[in-house]
């Protein structure tokens, strides 16, 4: 069961709310990247914004979600799996970071990135968040949300320069 926007708005934001905000941005940027109406010039801009969002999110999420979960035996397997998927996404981003964002091979890799990102986000929201939700206290989730959000801002700034 997913948390609705109304339910999230009626309580203090927690780490999962902050993560879902980035997940929604990632999905929107993936859609924009693969849109047939996106010009080649716009594709480069969308890819740059997607890459920054994915890299900042991965760093902040690993630090403020995965590390605490790795410290609990019940979270080891899930966190390791999620880390492996982050690595796969990182490799796809590297392969897509070429000067020319066109051609069948580039589009094929972009579609693979889209599939991998959507798979990872869905799995995380449906499975990993449940595991993490049982491990982390409500207070810890709120504290981690603040740290995650600050790290996202810092990482986006660092990656944009």
Provide a brief overview of the structure.
With 161 residues, this protein is mainly α. It has six helices and no strands.
Care to describe what's here?
This protein is mainly alpha-helical and 161 residues long. The protein has one domain. Helices cover 82% and strands 0% of the residues. The protein contains six helices and no strands. It is elongated, with a radius of gyration of 16 Å. The N and C termini lie far apart (39 Å). The mean pLDDT is 92.
Features:
161 residues, mainly alpha, 6 helices, 82% helix, elongated
The global form is elongated
Classification by helices and strands: mainly alpha
Radius of gyration: 16 Å
> How much helix is in the residues?
over 70%
Number of helices: 6
Report how far apart the termini are.
39 Å
Question: Please, what is the average pLDDT?
Answer: 92
What does the largest sheet look like? none
| H and E string | HHHHHH
Q: What's the total number of strands?
A: 0
Low-pLDDT runs:
none
Total of domains: 1
Strand share of the residues? under 5%
